[in-house]
Design goal:
The complex is a heterodimer of chains A (210) and B (209). Chain A is α+β, with helices and mostly antiparallel strands. Chain A is built from 2 helices and 15 strands. In chain A, 16% of the residues lie in helices and 50% in strands. Chain A starts with a helix and ends with a strand. Chain B is built from 4 helices and 12 strands, in the order αβαββββββαββαβββ. The radius of gyration of chain B is 19 Å and the shape is globular. Classes of the chains: A alpha+beta (210), B alpha+beta (209). Chain A: It comes from Flavobacterium aciduliphilum.
Chain lengths: 210, 209
């Protein structure tokens, strides 16, 4: 009986691993020869601009609303702040490619899992330069594939206007987070959706005309 | 040239002196508090427009949002942002009803001490009836234009979020015209009330989302 249970458990686990390891595939894309070695994310890159968004966050059935602010404060650091609609600060981070500093986080959000998830999201959202390993095309988009150990990022640019519209972040080739951008111009996305696939978290940002 | 410089300096100095805050005397404080408390008892409803400025030191410009506020005694409150987005929050019977651009949700404020305090603070700020010595250490100042009550929370629960609340009452008016919520970091939220109407009839349906 014990043996049977163990076998069942192992089979189930194997099945889960196999199913969850289904590789991320770019639909209808062909690899193309390219000399491009760097993908540049220009969103949030203008130090003169206050990037201000209305934020709507859905997390495990709960809704959170507020105002999300990003500003490039020097060559490598972005300041990221989330406040309630009334203006109370919920979190205040300084994010760079190599460093992450917490200036403030409200007690209810001060949990390791929350901080780590947001940290990873914000680094991906703000990181300016990514090395390119492979380039694909699928008719509507040019896709830049960038490997970082067991993590791979797919950056989608529109074929017609070269605007950056999507980032798919995978771990062990499984899609974990998708960032969708609606560009206003090359340095400003007027709407951003950050959709997590392994946890119930969706962050919607809509530009506020300030 | 020298005279011109002196004139400018003198004018600047005069302006600083006149706009400077002075501590109110014990008698002045007693009079001021009595007036506010007496007048706030005659208030049944308040309708007002507001502009909210969120100041974050690192931004080049404050974030400006605006809308309308309706208040009915004892504790019905609708705080409605209309620009640059629609968002309203209604405090009613210990519940908080939120309408975020059509997405509706309800929070049971009775189950949350923090929300109860937020509710009390908002209602208190708007009606000016905030002189609760148990919750706040209060100091009083005046300028040429305003009486200013500065409230420092006594409980850690609130002081973590807000270092000090400044209530500005225009001289010759009993209703708050400006509220400034100062955070421990130095950033602040400033709310300016405009087009205030007292004791107009407000239908209860205003307090549904």
């Amino acid at each position: 009986m014990q043996k049977l249970t163990t076998r069942f458990l192992v089979t189930s686990l194997l099945l889960i691993v196999l199913v969850s390891c289904k590789s991320y595939q770019i639909e209808g894309a062909n690899k193309v020869a390219s000399a491009i070695t760097n993908f540049q994310n220009l969103y949030f890159s203008n130090p003169e601009t206050d990037y201000v968004y209305k934020a709507h966050i859905e997390v495990y059935g709960n809704d959170l609303s507020g105002v999300f602010v990003v500003k490039k404060i020097n060559d490598s650091i972005h300041r990221v702040v989330l406040t309630t609609d009334f203006g109370n600060k919920l979190l205040d981070f300084e994010v760079s490619e190599t460093d992450f500093k917490i200036n403030y986080v409200v007690e209810n959000l001060n949990k390791k899992i929350v901080i780590n998830t947001l940290k990873k999201d914000f680094v991906l959202l703000l990181k300016a330069n990514h090395k390119v390993d492979e380039v694909f095309e699928n008719g509507t988009s040019i896709i830049f594939k960038s490997n970082e150990g067991n993590r791979t990022n797919f950056f989608y640019e529109n074929s017609d206007d070269n605007q950056y519209v999507k980032l798919v972040h995978t771990i062990h080739a499984k899609e974990k987070v998708t960032f969708s951008f609606l560009p206003k111009n090359t340095t400003f996305a007027e709407s951003i959706i950050i959709q997590h696939h392994n946890i119930k978290l969706k962050i919607e940002l809509t530009q506020i005309n300030n | 040239m020298r005279i011109k410089i002196f004139t400018i300096l003198f004018l600047a100095l005069t302006k600083i002196v006149f706009s400077q805050e002075q501590k109110m005397s014990v008698t002045e404080i007693a009079e001021f508090k009595a007036t506010i408390e007496k007048e706030s008892k005659t208030i049944n409803t308040i309708k007002t427009d507001f502009i909210q400025y969120k100041h974050l030191d690192f931004l080049s410009k404050d974030i400006e949002t605006s809308g309308k506020m309706s208040f009915k005694t004892p504790n019905l409150l609708n705080w409605q942002y209309t620009k640059p987005y629609n968002y309203s929050i209604v405090f009613k019977s210990n519940k908080i009803f939120i309408n975020d651009q059509g997405k509706k949700s309800i929070i049971d404020a009775g189950s949350s001490k923090i929300f109860e305090k937020i509710n009390k603070m908002i209602v208190g700020s708007v009606s000016g009836n905030m002189f609760d010595d148990k919750e706040f250490a209060i100091s009083y100042y005046k300028t040429k234009e305003f009486y200013i009550a500065k409230l420092s929370p006594k409980t850690k629960e609130i002081s973590k979020y807000i270092q000090q609340i400044d209530l500005y009452f225009p001289i010759n008016d009993v209703i708050v015209s400006l509220v400034k919520l100062n955070e421990p970091s130095g950033d602040f939220t400033k709310i300016v009330f405009k087009n205030k109407i007292l004791n107009a009839k407000i239908d209860d349906s205003v307090f549904s989302n």
